[in-house]
Amino acid sequence: IAGEHNISAVYTESENYTGAASSGTNITIVKIEADIEVSIDSSVTYKDTIKASVSLSERTNTFSGTGNLSVYLLDKNTNNRAAMAKIDNLAFPAENVNIEFNDVDAGEYYVAMLYKFDGKSSINDIDTSFYDKSVLVNKKIPQNSDFNYTIPADDTFKDDGSFNAVAQDKIEITPLDASMGTVETLYSKFNGSDWETATADAPVNAGRYRVIAKVSENKNYVDGNYVLSEDYVVLQSEITADDIICKINETDDRSFV
Q1: How far apart are the first and last CA of the chain?
Q2: What is the DSSP string of 179-245?
Q3: Which DSSP category does 13 fall into?
Q4: 3-state DSSP call for residue 107?
Q5: Closest to 239 measured CA to CA, from 159, 167, 180
């Protein structure tokens, strides 16, 4: 067993020899050192699965056992733990053990590992960091599927009854991932040859509009304006001569003969 030991010898008196005893010799038995190999994805995008592989061995190839493995991702700037994967009762030695991390925030991380042997005193537990084994989690470019929204199919030009245009109801855009923060809805009208400057004002006049999600700077997503649809159409309102006469009567106190 690894540790400090004293070896002594005692000879019991016999017919031909007297008894004797040695003063003892101190010896140290050193624990076996485990060898570790780690590989990890060098670069991924936020929301992608980070894949790593771990191999455990020892140079004499004589030791076997079980233990609990914990693998950590630590922030390179703060050393704070960002993620952990754990495998209990992992047999030793082990080769190419697959480890996965999900939903790790954008940033740069390095690998640390702890493997504690079950009741073994002849081999050292593994508790080490691999600063050179790092992964960069890049911010994600938002896609349409990252938002919750509904484009109305039958909006029609509205007025207040007196020929004054009224804005359409605002289209609400919410991110499916709260870490994106607040998203603003923008609109851009097509003027027949080009898209006009986007504004936050809901459409008033009939026409074809882009619906745009404005994403501000945040932890995990690339900020910017993202077009969700170019097919939001506000239809012209149908009107008849009688409608015009009625509206004039409602707004003008003159008599008609």
Answers
A1: 118
A2: GG--EEEEEEEB-SSSBPPPBSSPP-SSEEEEEEEEEPS-SSB--EEEEEEEEEEEBPPP--HHHHH
A3: -
A4: strand
A5: 159
Task: Give dist(CA 72, CA 163) in Å, integer.
Answer: 65
87 or 63: which carries more pLDDT confidence?
A: 87
pLDDT top residue among 240 and 222: 222
Distance CA 182, CA 106 (A): 18
Whether 93 and 67 have beta carbons less than 8 Å apart is answered as: no
Residues 6+ apart with CB under 8 A from 185: 170, 171, 172, 173, 200, 211, 212, 213, 214
> What are the helix (H) ranges across the chain?
241-251
Q: Which two tokens stand for residue 40?
A: 């990890």
pLDDT (average), residues 222-241: 90
Residue given tokens 């004499």 in the structure block: 60
Q: Is residue 206 within 8 Å of 155, Cβ to Cβ?
A: no
Model pLDDT for residues 106-148, shown as the tens digit of each residue = 999 999 999 888 876 556 778 889 989 999 999 999 999 999 9
